[in-house]
Every structure is written in C-alpha cells, then in structure tokens.
Write the structure tokens for this entry.
Amino acid sequence: MGMEELQINLNFVWTIMAAALVFLMQAGFSSLEAGFVRAKNSINVAMKNIADIIIVSLLFIFVGFPLMFGTTNGIFGTEGFFMTGFMSVNDPWLYAFLFFQIVFAGTASTILSGAVAERMTFHAYIIATIVVSTLIYPIFGHWAWGNLFFSDQSAWLADMGFMDFAGSTVVHSVGAWVALAGVIIIGPRIGKFNEDGTVNSITGSNIPLATLGVFLLWFGWFGFNAGSTTTGDASIAMIALNTLLAAAAAGLASLVSSFLITGMAKVEYLLNGVLGGLVAVTAGCNVFTPWLAVVVGFIGGFVLVLSMLFIEHTLRLDDAVGAVAVHGVCGAWGTLAIGLLAPSETLAAGGRWEQVGVQALGIGVAFVWVFPIALLTFWLIKKFGILRVDPEQELQGLNVSEHGATIALVDTITAMQEIAAARGDLSKSLPVNYGEDTAQLNEAFNRMIDSLNEIVTAVKLEMNHVIDTSRMVLTHTQHIQRNIKDNYDSIVQMNAGLQEVQAVIETGNQREDHFLETIRGSVYAFQEYVGRMGEMKRIGNQVSGFMASIHEEKEETSASMVEVHAQMESMKAFAEEVEAMVNLIQTTSDQIDLLSLNARIEAARAGEQGRGFAVVAQEIKRLSEQTRHSIQEIRGSIDKRLLGLKRGIDKIGITYTNLGQLTEHLEKTQQSIMAMLNLVARIDEETLKFSRQFQELVDDSADLQEERQARTEQLAEIVMSVENISEGTDMIRQHITSIATEAEAMVEGSLRLEHKLASFKTRPVLKEQASEDKPAGGNGVIVPNLVQ
C-alpha cells in the first residue's frame, strides 16, 4: 500500500469518525434541552431530537443532498434526487461525504427543537424539520458550499470569497433564524411574561443533565470543526485546539458577564456561553491562530449573554434554551470575525474590508433567505391549527399530551394537583406501585392524606366546642373591656381632679413663696432700717451736742454784742458831742466871719486910716474861711462816721435781735431734736423688737415651707402614681380591646373554619384507630402520628 492510498484511507477513517462525533452531538442537544425544560416536557424534546435525525437522514439523502451538492443551475442542485444520477454510483467517498453532511443537516434542523420547547406540537415540529432539511438548509448550503463535492462547479457566495469553514452561518445561523421565526409565531410559554412585560424565570428540571449535554456537544464539536477538513492530516491539530480554546474563553467571558450583570454565576449563561464560543469559532477555526480563537471566543461569550438578555427582556421573545442567541447571534459574530481578525493572507476575498463585506453579505443573505420562508411555514402551520398545543395540554405537559408517555415523578405531581384541585376531598389517594421509584413518595403522601383526614375529622368534632368557647371568651372579654373602660374613665377623672388640686396648690405655693420672699425682704429692710435708725440716733446726738455748743457760743456772742452795743452807744454820744463842738466852732466861725465883715466895713469907712484894720479884717476873713472850710471837712467826716455808727448800731441792733430770734429758734430746734431723739430711741427699740419677731416668723415660715414642700412632693408622687395607673389601665384597656378584637376574629375564623371543614370530604375514622391516636389524658382531639 502506497502513501497516497494510505492517506486516502486515513481521510476516510477521519471523516467517518468525525461524522460519528457530530452524530453524538444529537445526544448532546437532547440532554441539553431535556435538562433546560421542565420534566413534564423532557420526553417530548428527546422524541423531537431523535425524530429529526431520523427524518433528516432519509430526506436529506433523497432530496437535501442533491439540492445542496448536485449539479448546479446557479441556484440549487438539479441532479441525484432519490439516489439517481451521481448518487447511484458506488463511490465510497460519496458515502463518507454523504454521512458527514447528513449529520450536519441534522444539527441545523435540531436547533429549532430547544427554542420552541414546551408548547409546539410534535406534528408541527416534524413539518418544520422537513422544510428545513429539504429546502431551507440545502439551498443556502448550495450557495456557500455547493462546490465541496464537485469542486469544479460554482457556488456564488463561495466564488465571491465567502468563508465559513464548518458552518457558523451555513449550519448554526440557518437553524437559529428558523428558530427565531418559530418563537415569534408560536408565542411565549404560559407564565413566561407578566401583563406588565416583566419576565418570569422558568427553571429547568435537570441542570446536571444539561451540563452533560454541553460536554457531549463540546466533545462532538471536535469532529464538527476538525472533521470539516475531511482529510486526516496535520491541519486538524490547530482546528481542534482552536475549538477547545474558543469554548473555554467564551465560558470565562459569560461568567464575567454574569457576575457584572447579576452579581452571581448563572448556570444558563455559563453553559450557553461555552456553546456560543464553539459556534463563533466554527467559521474560522481553520484560519484563526490559537490566540485569535481565544479572542473570538471571549468576545462571543459577552455577545451571547447580552443577546440573550436583549431577546428576552427587550424583544419579549421566549427562547426556552437560548438557541437564537447561541447559534444565530454568535454564528453571525464568528462569521464576521474572519474578515475582522483572520490573517490577511488567508482571506479569500483579497483585502480585509472586502472580506468583511463578503462575510456581512453572506450573513445577510442567510437571514433574508431563511427567516421569511420559516416565518411563512410557521404561519401556515398555525393557520391549520396544529402549531401549538392547547393551554390545558401545555400545563399538563407534552410528555402526556403528545406522546402518552409518563414520568413517575411527573405522574405523582399530576396526581397531587388533581387531589388539590378536588378542594377538600381527602378520600382520594395516590396509587402505590412498588415497581416505580415514586412508590415511597406516593405512600408517604397517602399517609399524610390519612393523617390530614384524621385531623380534619377530629377538628370537625371539636369545632362546636371551639366556637362556643370562642364566643364565651369574646363575651367575657367584652365585659372586662366595659369594666376596664369604666375604671379607666374614673381614673382619668380622678387624675384630672388631682391635677387640678395640684395646680391650685402650686398656685398657692407660688403665692406663699412670694409672701415668704416678701417677709424675708422686709426682715432685711427692717434690719437695714434699724441700722439706719441707730445711725440717725447717733447723728441726732451729735446734732444735740452741736446745738449745745452753738447755744454756749450764742450766749458768749450775745454778751459780746451787748458790750459792742454799749460801746457803739458811747461812740454815738461822743460823736454827738463832737458834732456839738463842731456846731459851736461853726457858730464861732460864723461870728468871726461876721466880725471880719464888720471890720472890712469899718476899714472901708476909715479909708487909709483903716487900711491896717482892713488887713487885719482880711486875715480874719481868710482865717474865717479856712476855719469854715476845715469845719466843713470835719463835719463831713463826722457826718460819715456818725452815719456809719448809726448804721452799725442799727445793724448790731438787728443782729442782736436776729441773734435773739436765732437763739430762740435754736432752743426750739434743740428741744425738737431732743424730742425726735427720744422718739427715735423708742422707734429703734420697737423696730428691734419687731425685727426679732419678724426673724422668728421667717424661721417658722422656713419650717412650714419645708413641710409644705414635702406635702407637695407627696401630692406630686400621688399624681404621678395615678397617671401611671391611668397609663397602665389604658394599656390594659388597649390589650383587652385587642384581645376582644382577636376573640371576635377567632369567632369569625372559627365559623369560617367550620364552613371550610364542612367542605372537606373525609373518610370515617375507625374507633380503634382513634383510640390508639388519642393521647393519654387528652381532651378528645385525635392527633395522628405524622412521622412513620
């Protein structure tokens, strides 16, 4: 065997093994979907996954493969239908390639199953699978991969340079756009969205099974990507590594996204994140370097989480397993990433932006081709009324309604729901089949129903007693409530009276305090007055002394004034004598003057003989004039002195008179002062006596004030105690009111319970069983043993 033949055989082996791995992905999809849906629908999704690979295997070999890989007319293949033409040739490579492409077609078809799970009829799913495998998938696959079997024929997208090595768009996005149309037409599951648009989480029944499904898909994906080489050579190594790295990076990114958005690691984000990374790397796994595979996968993880949130919370679409986000959005991202990130030398379109344009064109063409046809298909199925199960069947679960299949646990839950729906029929029980794993659960449930039946029966028997007791408690409580209310009103009135008395006493105390303060102030004023009276007495004594001294000096002054008056009278007499002498001299002068005149007259008569006489007469005249002049001066001086003496005598007389009057007044004043001093002495004595009595009164008032303060504090304590009693009584009244309300509610509740118990249908309880269940010393209520 030559090397070429060995390589051919190795290619066959690798392609068949890879196809087998891809076939194993059907088990992965089945496990993933069964884990993500509720148990009542798990058989249905398993049926759909095995049914679609059966249908695809037969229809794709007869119709789908010829449409996809047969001789082209530019739009689809035209040869090989129903194993004719090139399909009838005994070609081992045709068989290997056909096997590989059948499982790929099965993958594209089964994506729909998870998205529309739990509400699409099995018939509608079979019809959709037929349309996908015989029309939608083969024709788009012909445009992108139509030259894979006959390498010399054209495929218009591939000829433009469109690159999708293992099917991010050709397989996964095609299946996802079909799923998107199905989700839109069929609508959400019952209870998924509230009327206000908020989303309710519908938890899967078996997440570990879904996790196993992800591992199976991840394992099969090595055949999906690396097997697309259909060549057993070294190129599969990098493809397998890229597949692993992209899935891991996407899982990490989805975890990070989950923590950033929800604050916790959401399992649905992690599992779908891994799948999103696998889908994203599928298109360029043969041209990406390991580092680029990590980048594409990491971005794909973020894209997956964001697109899931957008589809569910913004578009309000119910994709049960997140298939549209995983296969559609991540598939589009992986396809576009070739143009953005792949090494330029590997780009089929030439330049990078040319490649980006071609990749975007392929993504758009896939959507424009797949989505409208799928939308029309589901719309027509809906028109025929076979798209969605009835609401009752959906609530029951598609396992039963579509396949007549049961799961023991689901059957148990259904039976429990039926018992609950019977609304009080405790005569029913679950069937116990010891060959099923729910036998113990059903048996325990039946024991619980039996115990509940016994309890309800016992409660029915005791219900009348409970009602009578409740009514009696209510009556007594209402009576106590009335008494408490009366006592409370009395206490409130007494408290008000005590507070009024306290207020009056407080007012009286304030007045007494003011009076006592006035007395204390008066005592202090009287003490100060006593001091001032003493000072006044001392000053009066001093004034009396001064007055005595003044009287003595007045007597001396009076004696001196008498002497001065006598001397002034003597001087007056002397002055009068001097005046008489002056008058005499004046008379003498006048006579001399007259003599002089006579002499001059005689001299004049004598002429010359009398000239000497005339001289003498002239001298006498001069002397007379001088005398007259001197006498005038003396008279003027004497008159002044006499006038002064007269005035002095008059003033001295007046002074003497005034001094006498002053003396008289001083004597009277002294007498008044003495009388006043005597009065002050008496007042001082009485004031001292009154001050001592006042001080005694203040001292006694202080004792009375202390005693009154003690009585006031006792009254305040009594008022406080009454207030506490009032508050306590009010609290008791409130509690009694609450108890009365509760008692009334208990009566009403007992009546309602009696009415409710009357609706229970119970089985008779044997007396032997009742006596066994009745505890010793009990009150007649049967308490069954709930733990066995």
